[in-house]
Design goal:
Order of helices and strands: HHHHHHHHHHHHHHHHH
Number of domains: 1
Radius of gyration: 23 Å
Largest sheet: none
Oligomer: single chain
Number of strands: 0
Number of helices: 17
Strand content: under 5%
Length: about 500
Amino acid sequence: MSENSNVKRVLKNTLALYFRMIVLTFISLFTVRVVFQVLGASDYGLYNVVGGFVGMFGFLTGTLTIAEQRYFAISLSSRDWDSLSKLFSVNLVVNAIFGMILFLISETIGLWFVSTQLVIPVERMTAAFVVYELSIVSFLLALIVAPYMALLVADENLSIYSVVSIFEGISKLLIVYLLLTSNSDKLITYAVLLCLISISVNVFYVIYCKIQYPALQLKVYRDKNSYKEVLSFMNWNLIGAIASVLKGQGINMVMNVFFGPVINAARGIAFQINNVIMSFSQNFMKAIDPQIIKSYAKGEQERFFFLITASSKISYYLLFFIALPFMLNINYVLNLWLVEPPQYTSIFTILILVDALVASITDPICTAVQAVGKVKVYQLTVGVIAILNLPIAYSLLVIYNDPLVPFIVSIVISVVMALSRLVTFRRLYDFSIMNYCCQVFFPICLVTLLMVCVDGYLFSQADNFPHFIGNSIGTMVFSASIIYRIGLNAREKNIIKNAFPGKNLINKFRR
């Protein structure tokens, strides 16, 4: 495939993902508000922690998908359908085996933990068990369908992903209506309807892939080496995946034990905001990740390094550009959105966004490591550091009993992880840390300092909607100016100039 075709494909996928993001943002903001009001803080927090407990096992889905995407992307780069069919079949079997193992764990140890260790009001125990079982169904189906999703991403076929996601969002609007009109238990109704949507979406992906990729032949392979290769790659990624779970749902359960479900509701809302804002950089990375993997597979080393450094800066700028207005006006946004947000929601949101900003800078390094394939050393250093998040947070909570502690610990761990990613990747690849810092860290730090100081001084906390709109526009205009003048080098500025009017911004990925 020519470079021009790669560029066009990245642009197409990026635009499709951003259209999806805009639609889903408005849907999400509306549905979260109504669902929170209908369920109440306690039930909303209960769903967050019980459903999140099952979501802990999602680390396996993420790990398998990352490995599968890498193998599929390499096969697709040469359009080797025989190899792809074999890899796909092997991964499907592996996913099914892991699914059976996790089903047994969730119905024994998991059920015991939910019924005896989590803080759940006695009168809501039945509803909690229903939420738990339905969450297991959704998780297991997502695990089985993971290879199909990995195939779509590896083939950069993200338009259909955007369309289905919008359908999923619109379906959640219907859930809101049904919740408002239903006379049955609201929490159980909510869990049942979400499970039905999950089943419908995953079944559609399977049917679509079977139609879209007729050359993909599924059968059971008995080649032990193929299974060994896939499992070996996945095993080391499990360290990072487990660390991610401990940081996310592990902390969520610890906070439930220390502070109860209302704090879980505040944390859940804060992460809803974070997910919406994070999508601005994640959509860009979702379109770029396959290009990073394929450029390495094809031996395009200069382009490989360029994609790493460019995406590191851009993913951070996209996230910070949107996050800063929210952070400066967080109290007004929450009161406008939820009327009476739970205590700590505003400070939780700010700390989570800071954590996300730190992590976003070196996230492309993770993709680069997957492309190189040498994940053992990486996970034994970066993954182990990440695992420390939960025990450190728990130990400090015992001492200080402050709900802010886990968030502060997470930020510190993210900083250490960012530095360790660079050092570790340098051991795996001919990679100049100083060059990376000059191109990425230094401009990011300068831009961040100027944006926070100047925007914080010029734009006070909003107290009405026109004030909020004015603040947001002013902040974004000033931020865009700072990013362009200081955050970009001469080559990147020239790319921006050539992108308007009507030229392809993604041409920056050319040699």
